[in-house]
UniProtKB/TrEMBL annotation, chain A:
Pfam family, one: FecR
InterPro entries, sorted: FecR, FecR_C, Ferrdict_sens_TM
GO molecular function ontology, one term from the record: sigma factor antagonist activity
Protein name, entry field: FecR family protein
Transmembrane segments: none
Highest classification ranks of the organism: Bacteria, Pseudomonadati, Bacteroidota, Cytophagia, Cytophagales
């Protein structure tokens, strides 16, 4: 230790001095007492320096969380304690939770079902049924869906994913099947439930931003004349990033890689992008609560000994699709299932497996045939 | 540094807590949250003006530790240090901020001399407690936020220069300069005018 005659500022910056003031131990105590013995005229300076160091510590340590904040933070952390993370996305989750209002009642995603339904869906080679009438095929091979009705419209994609398109929404996608990626363009608001396929990322292009997922459910709201594009995640993880219409080929290729990039959103997180700057804008905290209850994006699809008649009613209202079934045989069969985040056809597959029944989708309606409860 | 924390909570050392977390011990994790969330939050407030952002970042740092517990390195001398580095990274990425490296490195060339003859000190001796308080408050209020950050890590959080350098992602010398800069207002004028007070100081201490 340098026993130079310290000035006030030097003392305040001195490592040894700071640790003596903040956390004195026998050794430092002895050393500084010795210093004061040698330089008794320094007593006042040392006292002043001590005062300043303590004040600096006090003043820079004032931003304590309130008890409410502490409890809030702990509740969120605690809710993640028992969440087994099977996804190996190692990237930091960049945008943190705005709101974790609802903790899904159960994360019992019926994983095995995916493979079953995948087998089922893969039998259909061409772009599958598009429910509803408003289809147009443009000259460059794009299928375009425009919802000019006053109600939500469900669009089923070739890979088994389903999209619930809100009124005035427009969705377009290629009629050809692409082995590397799945992509759609969207104007307006739509809720997506995407079949898991890590090898083929699913991309939603809206004006200026792209939303990429490997299999999950989420809401995209890109109003035609709005200033913001909103993305809200229901299950799984999605990444959102700026992507200009005139993005170069390499930029586009980069976007199509299976890795999630940009801002990563998890369950119940949402983000707004400014259409002008392509930069994220934080949403007001209340916006999540005023969501329409009947809207599909707010439904959990958790069924616990629920009669089939109610299950079908929930699906009919969420997807705006008529479901026809033999009421006397099936109505009272109970269902236990958590169908959150699964595309429409996967939900039907799960239900039919539970009922030992079959389903057929045709002309904006679903027909279930079965022999009653198992 | 580690011993500093142990004196605050003698039941379990940082290393014990860390090992516990790695083995999936929820109690160890809970203790770690209890011990560090508050100072971590305080530090976060120096990085972002939004308390909601800070809360979220603090949560996420803890959630990540638990989520990635199996992949955590075994030798961590200080959980606190690990947490602070993670928090800073998270808040800065969230803000799409540039690293502060540039801002700090501008000071790198500055030669810091042992004496304070070419600088004005913000600290004056022999003042009453209330004036001292006012002085510090004024100092913290007018400093750029990076300097407040360095002061917080130094004085409130008791990190040493090397640790601060790693947390802020710069070298040791930069941190020293940074803190020096924060505590003294340097004179830009090379042909400085020696004020009577300064002459007094030089005479007094030489």
């Amino acid at each position: 230790m340098k026993f130079a005659p310290y000035t006030l500022t030097e003392l305040i910056r001195n490592d040894d001095f700071i640790s003596w003031v903040r956390h004195p131990d026998a050794e430092s105590e002895a050393r500084w007492q010795q210093f004061l013995l040698e330089y008794p005229e320094k007593t006042k300076v040392v006292e002043d320096a001590r005062g300043y160091v303590n004040l600096l510590a006090e003043d820079t340590g004032k931003s304590k969380p309130t008890i409410e904040q502490t409890n809030k933070m702990w509740r969120v952390v605690e809710s993640h304690l028992h969440e087994e993370n099977v996804e190996d996305v190692q990237q930091p989750k960049i945008i943190s939770a705005w709101k974790w209002l609802r903790i899904a009642a159960s994360i019992a995603l019926v994983l095995g079902i995916t493979s079953v339904s995948y087998w089922y869906l893969n039998r259909q080679t061409e772009i599958a049924s598009v429910i509803g009438p408003q289809v147009a095929v443009t000259e460059n091979g794009l299928i375009e869906k425009f919802n000019d009705t006053g109600k939500p419209m469900t669009v089923l994609l070739a890979d088994g994913s389903s999209v619930v398109l809100q009124p005035n929404g427009k969705l377009s996608f290629s009629s050809k099947i692409n082995t590397k990626k799945r992509e759609v363009n969207l104007t307006g608001k739509a809720f997506f439930e995407i079949v898991k396929d890590p090898q083929r990322p699913f991309l939603v292009y809206t004006d200026g931003i792209a939303t990429k997922v490997l299999g999950t459910s989420f809401l995209v709201d890109a109003p035609e004349n709005g200033s913001e594009i909103n993305v809200e995640v229901k299950t799984g993880k999605v990444s959102v990033f700026a992507l200009n219409k005139n993005a170069s080929l390499s930029e586009r290729e980069e976007a199509e890689k299976p890795e999630l990039k940009g801002i990563i959103l998890s369950r119940d997180q949402k983000i707004a992008f400014s259409r002008v700057s392509g930069k994220p804008v934080k949403l007001p905290e209340t916006s999540l609560e005023i969501a329409n209850v009947a809207d599909i994006s707010t439904q959990l699809f958790v069924f616990d000994e629920t009669p089939m008649s109610e299950v079908f009613k929930a699906l009919e209202s969420a997807y705006n699709i008529k479901i026809i079934y033999n009421e006397s045989l099936i109505s009272n069969c109970p269902l236990n299932a958590t169908l959150i985040g699964q595309p429409f056809t996967e939900k039907l597959t799960v239900i039919c497996a539970a009922l030992d029944a079959q389903f057929e989708i045709k002309d904006n309606q679903v027909t279930i045939t079965g022999n009653g409860c198992r | 540094m580690v011993t500093t924390f142990e004196t605050l909570n003698r039941e379990k050392s940082d290393q014990e807590l860390w090992d516990g977390i790695r083995n999936g011990d929820e109690r160890a994790f809970t203790i770690a949250f209890d011990r560090y969330h508050s100072t971590l939050y305080n530090y976060g407030c120096k990085l972002s003006p939004s308390s909601a952002t800070v809360e979220d970042a603090v949560q996420d740092v803890f959630i990540d530790i638990w989520r990635l517990r199996k992949n955590l390195t075994s030798d961590v001398s200080s959980i606190k240090f690990y947490l602070y580095r993670a928090l800073r990274r998270r808040i800065n990425i969230g803000h799409e901020r540039f690293p502060v490296t540039e801002e700090i490195s501008m000071l790198d060339d500055l030669e810091i001399t042992g004496n304070d003859t070419n600088s004005e000190t913000v600290f004056i001796e022999g003042e009453s407690k209330s004036i001292m308080e006012k002085r510090i408050r004024g100092l913290i209020a007018r400093l750029p936020e990076r300097q407040v950050e360095a002061l917080t890590l130094r004085y409130f959080d008791d990190f040493n220069i090397e640790e601060i350098a790693q947390i802020m992602g710069v070298n040791d010398k930069s941190v020293r300069n940074f803190i020096y800069k924060a505590l003294t207002s340097l004179r830009h004028n090379r042909e400085y005018i020696i004020s009577p007070a300064l002459i007094f100081c030089i005479l007094w201490f030489s």
